[in-house]
Every structure is written in C-alpha cells, then in structure tokens.
Design brief:
oxidoreductase activity; alpha/beta; 7-stranded parallel sheet; NAD(P)-bd_dom_sf; SDR family oxidoreductase; Rossmann fold
C-alpha cells in the first residue's frame, strides 16, 4: 500500500517545527491524506503562513497553527493546555523541531538554566510527549522521534551526564549529536513504558537533507557555503517526509514500537552504546527530573 492510498481522515497529527523543511512537507502530505494537522513552531508569522499554504494546496481546511517553543518548558505547558482545549484526541505526535545552529561558540541557556540544544532536541520532546500521553492513549497513538544518520560518525558516543550543559567543554556539533542520541534512548525506553497504554514510539534516522534556501539566513556565511555544497549530495525534504508519513500512517506499523527506520522505510540498528540499559535508565531519570515529570 503506497502513501497516496493511506487514509488519514479523522486522524489528528501534530508536527513540531512544521513551518519549513521536512516538517512542512510532512504536514502537507498528511493533510493531503485527509488528516487534521497541527503545526507547532515558535515563529508565529511563518507558522501561520505554512498553515495557510497547506490549506490552499490541499483544500483541507483542518490545518491549525499553535505557537510553541520547545526550548521553554513554560511554553510547552502552555502549548499542552492549548491542545487540550482545542482537540479532544491525538493520533500522531512527530517531534521534528530541532536546534541545529552549529555556529554557536559557547553554550546558551534556557530560562530553566538548561543548555538550549539539549533542551530543544531532547527535553522538549520528552515533556511534550508526557503531557499528551492522555490524548494519545485514547487513540492508540504514535510518537515519532527524529535522530540523525550523522550518529554513525560517533559510534562510541554516550550521554555525558557530567557535562550536559556544556560548561566544562562545548562543541555545538557534539551537543547536537548527543541530543539526537538522547532522543534515540528516549525512544527505546518510552516504547517500553508506553506499550501497556497502546502507544507506539519509533525513531527516524534522517540523512543529509537539502535545507530550504531561506533557512540559510539563520546560520553563518561559512555554514551557508557548506550547506550549498552539501545540497548536491542530499535528498529532498519531500523525499524524507515520506518516511515521516509512513511511520504516521502505515497500518503495517500498528504494533511496531521501539524501532529505528531509515529514509527507505527500513528498520536499522543504532550504535551499541545507544542500547546500554544503564545509560538509558539514568537518562530517563535525569530527563524526568529536569522536566519535573512525576509519572507517565
């Protein structure tokens, strides 16, 4: 059964960071399949524009923008309240938003005092998932997290609990990949914890994907040049979005949980370190403490 044959009528799908790039293409593809789509991002102007564009292109009026900053726990709690007020159910939660500003020279911190890359890419999805479990379990929902093929370059990487805030040493590249490794570990643990509630949790391994031209403005001139060279060897956001939709919509995955998928929709393995139960359990505890989660 192909993408165009999946019917998402009556399904509510939330995608963070869906104002551009892969997230926006996934939102468009899901709306074409009849889904009700919630676009979440922190930029109100581009978020509303993306929602309007998707409605126009798909003739599906059920596309809503909600403002949310995944680096801010206050914003995530507010977002959760908005979702509960406006929607009585949720079928799919895709954690697409990410901070990937590799031009950072030193760590920046959130209002909670947490390094922003780790806060946005890992703790934000953890907290939002927790706050939406009640809606997801009613519909045997799907949580989809996003990791990176770049982790293949770091087969021995693990979570450095002594330096989560990057105050001892900081590299934006390592901070980014550590946050993506943390998301993988969260995927494996959350799949186990949420299985009794009927919620599945799977991850996607995203390779090099072409950036929208407009997003080049967000990074340094050196990185802009690098991205333009990299573009020639990258897949398109539309191609990558198909895997998002596959995990969100395919009936074949109703009982599949705790797995890792590549851009060809194949199950793949992550590093040996990513399956370490002692690190996974410690990360689970630390993540819950940092987000003040008491139960799942």
């Amino acid at each position: 059964m192909g993408l165009q044959e999946w019917n998402m009528d009556g399904k509510v799908c939330l995608i963070t960071g869906a104002n551009a790039g892969i997230g926006k293409r996934a939102a468009l593809q899901l709306a074409k399949l009849g889904a009700e789509v919630i676009i979440v991002c922190r930029n109100e102007v581009s978020g509303k524009m993306a929602a309007k564009e998707i409605i126009t292109k798909t003739e599906n009026p059920r596309v809503t923008f909600l403002k949310g900053d995944l680096s801010s726990q206050t914003s995530i709690h507010q977002l959760s309240r908005e979702i509960h007020n406006q929607f009585d159910r949720l079928h799919v939660l895709i954690h697409n938003a990410a901070n990937f500003d590799l031009s950072m020279k030193k760590p920046k911190f959130t209002e909670e005092g947490i390094e922003t890359i780790f806060a946005t890419n890992h703790l934000g999805p953890v907290l939002l998932s927790n706050l939406l479990v009640d809606q997801l379990k009613e519909e045997k929902g799907r949580i989809i997290t996003i990791a990176s093929k770049g982790l293949l370059v770091y087969p021995f990487m693990t979570v450095d609990f002594q330096n989560l805030n990057g105050e001892q040493s900081f590299s934006p590249t390592k901070a980014y990949y550590q946050s993506k490794l943390a998301q993988l570990m969260f995927t494996y643990k959350a799949a186990e914890i949420l299985q009794p509630k009927g919620i599945t949790v799977n991850a996607i391994r995203v390779p090099s994907v072409q950036l929208d031209e407009g997003r080049h403005e967000e990074v340094s001139a050196l990185l802009r040049t690098a991205y333009k060279i990299k573009r020639k060897f990258s897949i398109t956001p539309e191609q990558m979005a198909r895997t998002y939709v596959y995990l969100a919509a395919s009936p074949d995955l109703e009982q599949i949980t705790g797995k890792y998928f590549d851009e060809e929709n194949n199950m793949v393995h992550s590093s040996k370190k990513s399956y370490d139960p002692s690190v996974i359990n410690k990360l689970w505890e630390v993540s819950n403490q940092l987000t003040k989660i008491e139960q799942w």
